[in-house]
Amino acid sequence: MATYVLLPGAGTDTWYWHPLEAELRARGHDVVAVDLPCEDNAAGLAEYADAAVGAVGGRTDLILVAHSFGGFTAPLVCDRLPVGLLVLLQAQIPAPGESPGAWWGNTGHEEARREQDERDGRDPDDVVALFHHDTPPELAAGAQEHARAQSATPFVKPWPLAAWPAVPTRFLLARDDRFLPAAYLRRIVRERLGITPDEMPGDHCPMLGHPRELADRLEAYRTELSL
């Protein structure tokens, strides 16, 4: 039995993980969906890592799954806990010394989003069409109900690690995401991690739209590494 630790993105809560959590528990695993202090203006990345470490407690056989902005916190957790595998799910990949706030400009996100919006012909104010177009409607509605305020505090200070942690790392890309478009993410993964991402269907939140396939992918990684 493994312990899957699920680290959320910005402005979200543990609800977003519940379909995947059910799939993983049905396969006999322990699951820790981490609740980060995203609304707390006193909390930065260090406090986010503290929250994750505290939620894990004394559990072992850890597989850490980090979504979106969780990519900034996940390596800090790996630096403190014996994580056997880190899976980045549509996640931001920081560079040493780079603040989360600077990440967008450094990676060319604005241009990538503009090009994607033009291809989609999408209303830029339609949040559901941006984040949840491949999510079942009832879950897309639930995602809006569970959205939380996100403090700007963790976006200010530089990412503190000097290098990526020495932990087996996989990147799982949802190829239909409009917020972090596929071609854009493929480039960042190659440049910053030196690996080719694996790909699956899904919008920005494949844990809602494709929880079974996502669980299958995670289990395949676990089996590959004999965790």
Keywords:
alpha/beta, single chain, globular, 227 residues
The percentage of residues in β strands lies in 5-15%
From the N-terminal CA to the C-terminal CA, the straight-line distance is 8 Å
* Order of secondary-structure elements: EHEHEHEHHHHEHEHH
Unreliable stretches: none
Helix fraction bin = 40-55%
Indicate the radius of gyration in whole angstroms: 16 Å
Average pLDDT confidence is 96
Structure in words:
This protein is of the alpha/beta class and 227 residues long. Helix content is 41%, strand content 14%. The mean pLDDT is 96. It has a 6-stranded parallel beta sheet, with helices on both faces.
Summarize the structure.
This protein is α/β, with parallel strands linked by helices and 227 residues long. Helix content is 41%, strand content 14%.
Question: How are the SSEs placed, and which strands pair?
Answer:
Layout: E1 3-7, H1 18-26, E2 30-33, H2 45-56, E3 62-67, H3 70-78, E4 83-89, H4 100-107, H5 109-120, H6 127-131, H7 137-145, E5 169-174, H8 182-193, E6 198-200, H9 206-209, H10 211-224
Parallel strand pairs: 1-2, 1-3, 3-4, 4-5, 5-6
Helix pairs in contact: 1-10, 2-3
